[in-house]
Write a structure and sequence with these properties.
Length: 80
């Protein structure tokens, strides 16, 4: 959250690092927010992948026992 003190501490640290590399303060702050957004997006993507993986696992676990309820197909025998 942008209201969290830890978030602003991280933004301040990143801003100071970018400023040390020669960026002006406004650009450094913008770059630090962009880096924080990229990190957040990567973490959200990983969590979404994990949720999808769990959903597919659950779907597989539910559908596997249903295979035992299927009947064997009758063989086609032409009339004699």
């Amino acid at each position: 959250s942008l209201l969290d003190a830890e978030t602003w501490s991280r933004v301040s640290t990143l801003t100071a690092g970018f400023a040390q590399r020669g960026l002006d303060l406004a650009t450094a702050k913008s770059a630090s927010l962009a880096m924080l957004a990229a990190t957040l997006k990567a973490q959200a993507s990983m969590l979404a992948f994990s949720d999808c993986y769990r959903f597919v696992l659950l779907l597989f676990a539910v559908c596997t026992p249903l295979a035992f309820l299927l009947r064997r197909p009758t063989l086609f025998r032409p009339p004699a």
